[in-house]
Amino acid sequence: MKILIIGSGGREHAIAYKVSKSKLTDQLFCAPGNAGIEEYAACVPIGVMEFDKLAAFAKNEKIDLTIVGPDDPLVAGVVDVFEANNLRIFGPRKNAAIIEGSKAFSKDLMKKYNIPTAAYETFDSSEKALEYLKTCDFPIVLKADGLALGKGVLICNTLDEANTGVKAIMLDKQFGSAGDKLVIEEFMTGREVSVLAFCDGTNIATMTSAQDHKRAGDGDQGLNTGGMGTFSPSPFYTKEVDEFCQKYIYQATMDAMKAEGREFTGILFFGLMLTKNGPKVLEYNARFGDPETQVVLPRMKNDIVEVFEACIDGRLKEIRLEFDDNAAVCVILASDGYPEHYEKGFIIDGLDKFIGKDGFYAFHAGTKRTADGILTNGGRVIGITATGKDLKEARSNAYMAAGWVTFKNKYMRNDIGKAIDEV
């Protein structure tokens, strides 16, 4: 098969790595790709939102399957455009991707179908939101309704903080049009867990668990980011938790979307909070998580292209997902100053040390190949992933490998996976 991947981040690099291992893959392309993806795919200079150009390329190259990585093109309807051109594509249609595109939609869906989540209210007026805050217990969570690169969530400990947050999201448009609507949500406490799942519109098959670290600084301090590192599996995601989630969250969500006439085919990401009152949904995403994908896919035994095909054809029940009995940890190497102001364009050294080393991966996120070498080209630069027989070994390996890579203004958290020490 000739396969096209849409995207340019660490998630897409991990997908490209896995797709390149498939016995069904003949030729692999990526639009627009990055310096790391070039190892597996021919990179094509087409942006992820240039749907007509992407579809034309897929037609001209006789692409057999397209895989969509990021959220923006899915929410904007890239799948619908490809299907209108009789092109085979993996991902949810626009009317299903709304589960990520609008937090108000997803919260209303959960309320309607009794899927466990935090109590909430939705506002399209800052005045009404500010009035409501006077009645709230703190801390409280503010969520921009639309897509905000994983950063549109503010945890406010006081009324003053919350008032400032409402103004930043709704009036100052800190997250652009994503803040036209606001969800104010009860603050939940517990362990966070991420579970990715393949979906075929009716059936769902969950992957191994993972845990992200969203805050920029050690000890979960600082601003929210797109993710500073992950580990898999989560020791807090027990058999009992899984049994509850399979029945009351995962299949219930698939059934709810189908009942709404929004059959979901693609990857559904469940962000969960394991509260003292049981697991609850923090958020849904309509695609592979980043950086969760970087620890989940290296542990997956299945031929991923076979799974993609089964999802599109409604044959997911035929697939039994299998994962190695090991662990993986990913440490994000970022540009100092991320997620706010940072410089880019610095030479990256040490990537050659990963060549031929089994179980060690450097998944490029914000990189660019030039005549001088590979340069930093984003806030999150590279995800260093390593496997091990257990989480402690994987963590040790990941931090060792993170030391192999150097560039000016390199920044990373030093406590990714530290929670496993408490188990």
Automatic annotation (TrEMBL):
Any single Pfam family the record assigns to this protein: GARS_A
Pathway in which the depicted protein is active: Purine metabolism; IMP biosynthesis via de novo pathway; N(1)-(5-phospho-D-ribosyl)glycinamide from 5-phospho-alpha-D-ribose 1-diphosphate: step 2/2
PROSITE patterns membership: ATP_GRASP (PS50975), GARS (PS00184)
MF GO annotations: ATP binding; metal ion binding; phosphoribosylamine-glycine ligase activity
Domain ATP-grasp, residue spans: 107-313
SMART domains linked: GARS_A, GARS_C
Top EC class for this record: ligase
EC number(s) on file: 6.3.4.13
Entry keyword set: ATP-binding, Ligase, Manganese, Metal-binding, Nucleotide-binding, Purine biosynthesis
GO terms, biological process: 'de novo' IMP biosynthetic process; purine nucleobase biosynthetic process
SUPFAM superfamilies (alphabetical): Glutathione synthetase ATP-binding domain-like, PreATP-grasp domain, Rudiment single hybrid motif
Origin: domain of life: Bacteria
Catalytic reactions of this protein: 5-phospho-beta-D-ribosylamine + glycine + ATP = N(1)-(5-phospho-beta-D-ribosyl)glycinamide + ADP + phosphate + H(+)
Cofactor: Mn(2+); Mg(2+)
Protein family according to the UniProt entry: Belongs to the GARS family.
NCBIfam families, alphabetized: purD
Protein name in UniProt: Phosphoribosylamine--glycine ligase
Species this chain originates from: Anaerocolumna sedimenticola
Phylogenetic placement of the source organism: Bacteria, Bacillati, Bacillota, Clostridia, Lachnospirales
